[in-house]
Amino acid sequence: xxxxxxxxxxxxxxxxxxxxxxxxxxxxxxxxxxxxxxxxxxxxxxxxxxxxxxxxxxxxxxxxxxxxxxxxxxxxxxxxxxxxxxxxxxxxxxxxxxxxxxxxxxxxxxxxxxxxxxxxxxxxxxxxxxxxxxxxxxxxxxxxxxxxxxxxxxxxxxxxxxxxxxxxxxxxxxxxxxxxxxxxxxxxxxxxxxxxxxxxxxxxxxxxxxxxxxxxxxxxxxxxxxxxxxxxxxxxxxxxxxxxxxxxxxxxxxxxxxxxxxxxxxxxxxxxxxxxxxxxxxxxxxxxxxxxxxx
Length: 295
Known about the structure:
Elements: H1 7-41, E1 44-46, E2 53-55, H2 59-66, H3 68-99, H4 106-118, H5 121-132, H6 138-143, H7 156-180, H8 185-193, H9 198-209, H10 211-226, H11 230-235, H12 249-259, H13 263-291
Antiparallel strand pairs: 1-2
């Protein structure tokens, strides 16, 4: 027999619901409703003058999957992720290990490397566009070259990837520092007694024990890289000849949904990207069980 709640328990439950209500309402309004609305719009075609939706079934999905532009943008996004994720993780790990040691001005160095994370994306884009400028840019001035860093289709995607790595290193580094401080110092003391070098300690102790943090960073950064938009939107002009070889899936979604007014096609692009990310996440979750250190 179910026990009845006392007046005190009822009051506590009411106050608990009251406190979680804003979060629940926010999730429903800002997360759940947009998800279901996007799925619905992917089966529709925007009506005349941008008003109303006409149900077209799987027509949008057929058009998206048959479009070479879709596959090119997906490949562009994957290429960006292949630069940003591994380089962002490796460089951040090395910096975290160095800045976890007792060195002079350690806090200053940590702050400097984390600064890109707190800079406005518009400011970051402006600075890097100046650095990459073909005529007046600092890079060409230093190297005495005339390279079109962001307008040459062959190297523009690499230039964008470099900005992504620079922007995310500080965030990854802070997460690695948190993971490093969770590793007991006894392991390193025992390794010192056994005569293990610093490099041997790094690969035999640090890397394995840091694998849960590394996996978390890799997984979240893959998702972040596959949904990149603001960086490309602010660095690449619409008239840039390299745009087609750089634009991500989310950038393409923005063009169709908000510039061209074809919200159904844009919503379909997002759903296709979501399915792709879910497949990647599923694979990563399977890999986690085999590669991540378990306490």
